[in-house]
């Protein structure tokens, strides 16, 4: 049981945030969430409370706020003593970042700098940061190893790379800072209950939320971007990881940070080490859902890599963490979420109201 440790989770109402908050509560942590609900809804927090149960939900408080607003941060840090921060808050759509770079530099960079300066003021110097495999750019070889050269291929990726460098600089300047950077590969799936899941606003950028919306009839077909890649079936390969595995990776990183103060600033891949192609994923989802996913073979999407998947050795050895779920479970749980919540957290009625 965890002794009364309070954790601040920024962006805790989001896809990965909610799944991680639920696991933190189950591990006995006290959790404060700040989220501006820019890309999330408070209903997701209500679902977390429902799944955690009455007793554990007493250890969760939600604050509507923005990490770009220093007053919002001051209000929290002057009220609570945080033992560590898990920092999810930020925008994460590659395509959107190309169209609206200001939005990405403002949310991801400015917001993080306000958070870190407030943490320093209140002597809270243990941080788990939500990084991304996108910092590997178009990797020259695979699997991706944490000591590869890093490069960004989009404004979104550049913000993640700059924030990793910022974390390294903060630690170099003050060794009391202990920071773990978690590089997510492709998070998919949902909590086994079907009550939590990914619910992007607008047309999904990512593969699985798009497939999910085709399966429930919200979209007519899936555009498969690229069928001439040098891969067995011609479609691109990625390392998809169950969001519950990802949540457990955060718990492992947090426990390491709370147990020791000589961590420094270290990056870990959170992936499965397995590659799955787009067409293989379509087939797996059809099997899990019993639904036919119509596809249209399209040209490659600019900026996409042929194949990206993780070396998982470092996280296994140093975090004692390894992904447990495979593609079948990811598709099973993604379908349960989609079939029970075809319009995500918004009911169809409110969606119609939004559309009118
Ligand atoms: C996966 C594959 C597409 C949509 C990005 C970010 C990464 C992380 C996950 C935040 C690619 C193909 C997709 C579609 C398709 N985000 N695809 N039709 O680009 O690997 O990674 O999201 O951390 O940082 O870079 O994920 O799901 O967009 O694409 O064929 O409608 O599916 O071309 O091959 P990606 P993705």
Task: Give structural notes.
The protein is α/β, with parallel strands linked by helices and 356 residues long. It is 42% helix and 16% strand. The protein is built from 12 helices and 13 strands. The chain has helices at residues 15-26, 43-57, 70-79, 94-99, 101-121, 155-173, 207-215, 243-259, 278-289, 313-319, 327-340, 348-355; strands at 6-10, 30-35, 60-64, 84-87, 126-132, 178-184, 186-188, 222-225, 237-238, 240-242, 265-270, 276-277, 295-298. Strands 3-2-1-4-5-6-11 form a 7-stranded parallel beta sheet, sandwiched between helices. α6 links the parallel β5 and β6. α1 packs parallel to α2 (43-57), α5 (101-121) packs parallel to α6 and α9 (278-289) crosses α11 (327-340). The longest helix has 21 residues, at 101-121. The protein is globular and about 55 Å long. The model has no long low-confidence stretch (mean pLDDT 95). The structure holds UDP-4-deoxy-4-formamido-beta-L-arabinopyranose. UDP-4-deoxy-4-formamido-beta-L-arabinopyranose (WQD) binds at residues 92, 94, 132-134, 184, 186, 205-207, 210, 222-226, 236, 238, 278, 301, 304. One of its GO terms (biological process) is galactose metabolic process. Its cofactor is NAD(+). Keywords: Carbohydrate metabolism, Galactose metabolism, Isomerase, NAD. It catalyses: UDP-alpha-D-glucose = UDP-alpha-D-galactose. Its EC number is 5.1.3.-.
């Amino acid at each position: 049981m965890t002794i009364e440790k309070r954790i601040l989770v920024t962006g805790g109402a989001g896809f990965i945030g909610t799944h991680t908050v639920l696991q933190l509560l189950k591990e006995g942590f006290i959790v404060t969430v700040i989220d501006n609900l820019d890309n999330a809804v408070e209903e997701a927090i209500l679902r977390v409370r429902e799944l955690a149960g009455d007793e554990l939900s007493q250890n969760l408080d939600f604050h509507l706020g923005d990490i770009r607003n220093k007053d919002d941060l001051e209000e929290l840090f002057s009220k609570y003593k945080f033992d560590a921060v898990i920092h999810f808050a930020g925008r994460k759509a590659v395509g959107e970042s190309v169209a609206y770079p200001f939005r990405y530099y403002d949310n991801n960079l400015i917001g993080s700098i306000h958070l870190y300066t407030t943490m320093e003021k209140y002597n809270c110097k243990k941080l788990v940061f939500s990084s991304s495999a996108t910092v590997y750019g178009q990797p020259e070889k695979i699997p991706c190893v944490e000591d590869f050269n890093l490069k960004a291929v989009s404004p979104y990726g550049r913000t993640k790379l700059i924030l990793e460098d910022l974390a390294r600089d903060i630690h170099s300047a003050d060794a009391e800072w202990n920071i773990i950077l978690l590089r997510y590969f492709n998070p998919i799936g949902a909590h086994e209950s079907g009550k939590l899941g990914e619910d992007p606003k607008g047309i999904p950028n990512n593969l699985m939320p798009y497939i999910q919306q085709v399966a429930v009839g919200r979209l007519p077909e899936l555009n498969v971007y690229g069928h001439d890649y040098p891969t067995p079936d011609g479609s691109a390969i990625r390392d998809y990881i169950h969001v519950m595995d990802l949540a457990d990776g955060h718990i492992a990183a947090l426990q390491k940070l709370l147990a020791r103060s000589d961590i420094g600033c270290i990056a870990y891949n959170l992936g499965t080490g397995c590659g799955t192609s787009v067409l293989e994923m379509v087939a797996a989802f059809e099997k899990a859902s019993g639904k036919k996913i119509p596809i249209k073979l399209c040209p490659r999407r600019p900026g996409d890599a042929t194949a990206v998947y993780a070396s998982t050795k470092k996280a296994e050895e140093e975090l004692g963490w390894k992904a447990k779920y495979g593609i079948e479970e990811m598709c099973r749980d993604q379908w349960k979420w989609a079939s029970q919540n075809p319009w995500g957290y918004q009911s169809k009625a409110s969606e119609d109201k939004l559309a009118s």
